[in-house]
Amino acid sequence: MEKSKPEDMWQCQMTNCGYIYDPARGDKKGKIPPGTRFEDLPDDWKCPCCGASKQMFKPLAGPDSVAAQSVKCEQ
Ligand SMILES: [Zn+2]
Asked: How many CB atoms sit inside 10 A of residue 34's CB?
């Protein structure tokens, strides 16, 4: 499977949640098929780990990004 670029991956910003949305993997729990860009997720999509909304996510790379941290709740 193709690897995602860091700027395509989005990390949940909630305390105690390190979930990272990887478009190459999608979100099985939210019925998001692999290959779905974060931007193309439905607006009511929620973090499968803690239930936070899309607005709580930041890209892993790029001008508005956060540094990659340890993932506490990988699927
Ligand atoms: Zn979360």
From this structure: 13
